[in-house]
Design a protein that fits this description.
- The chain has 291 residues and is mainly beta.
- The protein folds into 2 domains: 199 residues, Jelly Rolls (Sandwich), CATH 2.60.120; 77 residues, Immunoglobulin-like, CATH 2.60.40.3080.
- The protein is built from 1 helix and 27 strands.
- Strands 4, 9, 12, 14, 15, 17 and 18 form a 7-stranded antiparallel β-sheet that branches.
- A hairpin with a 2-residue loop joins strand 2 and strand 3.
- The longest helix is centred in the N-terminal third of the chain and has 4 residues.
Length: 291
């Protein structure tokens, strides 16, 4: 891969829509007695013979008539396989994506409607995006941008999720790869994720500053009684924190620098979801238990 150091320059939030084939999962094909979303590869092709499906059609959609269900399942002879869908081709032996689809824009983020529930907190559902360009000199693919969001708690109501893209090249891509998964690399049987209405949004030129990563964000103490601290270990000048309950209702929202102490006196006991965004950069998702 080739890496370039260029300062970020953002254009206005011009929406880039209609660039993801079958982005609302309205089109499904019947193959060998099972349904599969058009333009999205998955593992049903190797599990249907056992009567097991990790990729299913849900109804009604949000919006539309249908949405995508991905469920991690125990597969005879294979162990637990993640529910995975790829906007391109999938290696059914390694569960790794092989290729994406033609794409030439430079979006700011991938937005989508989502529900999810990993089997336990050690697992996590994810949405990942990779934009690449073929290098004719090296005969390999250069990474233009990447983004990933991980969800390791639960949300049983639809809400708007976002995966922000981190650009490491000023070039335009020629391919986009979206990988949706109900589980991590250590899948747990029963973890699931629902997705609908995927859309790229925004337009970026140049390269963004370094984004925050999942490991950069810590929340303590957890469980919490009267307050907790959200801290970003890397140096940032501004980040946004959003906290919602298990029903998707926003409880708290503000901006902060590297750390913020949040008073939870009067909050109902239970689990809350913490989402931290750094401008147009990566979205980090955590959970906090209030006792």
């Amino acid at each position: 891969m080739r890496f370039y150091l260029i300062y970020i320059l953002m254009l206005g939030l011009k929406t880039v829509v209609g660039q993801i084939p079958n982005n609302s999962f309205e089109t499904w094909n019947s193959i060998s007695g099972y349904s599969t979303p058009a333009n999205w590869d998955n593992l049903n092709q190797i599990t249907f013979s056992s009567g097991i499906y990790t990729c299913l059609k849900g109804t009604p959609g949000n919006p539309g008539s249908s949405y995508l269900i991905l469920i991690s399942k125990s597969i005879p002879g294979r162990g637990v396989a993640p529910g995975i869908a790829v906007s391109g081709k999938l290696d059914t032996s390694t569960y790794k994506p092989l290729c994406g689809y033609p794409f030439t824009n430079r979006p700011q983020s991938l937005n989508y409607n989502i529900q999810y529930m990993p089997y336990d907190p050690s697992d996590s559902s994810s949405v990942k995006v990779l934009l690449t360009k073929w290098d004719t000199i090296t005969s390999s693919r250069d990474t233009i941008a990447y983004g990933a969001s991980y969800y390791n708690a639960m949300a049983h109501s639809w809400f708007l999720g976002s995966t922000y893209l981190n650009y490491i090249s000023g070039d335009a891509p020629d391919s986009a790869l979206i990988v949706l998964s109900s589980s991590s690399s250590n899948p747990q049987n029963g973890s699931y994720i629902y997705l609908d209405n995927l859309q790229f949004n925004g337009n970026v030129i140049g390269i963004e500053e370094q984004s925050i990563n999942q490991s950069d964000v810590v929340i303590y103490p957890n469980p919490s009684f009267e307050s907790f601290v959200a801290e970003i270990k890397t140096n940032v000048d501004k980040a946004e924190i959003n906290i919602s309950d298990v029903f998707g209702k926003q409880i708290f929202q503000t901006t902060f620098s590297n750390a913020i102490k949040i008073n939870t006196m009067g909050w109902t006991r239970g689990t809350y979801f913490v989402k931290i965004n750094r401008g147009n950069k990566s979205s980090i998702n955590k959970k906090i238990i209030i006792q």
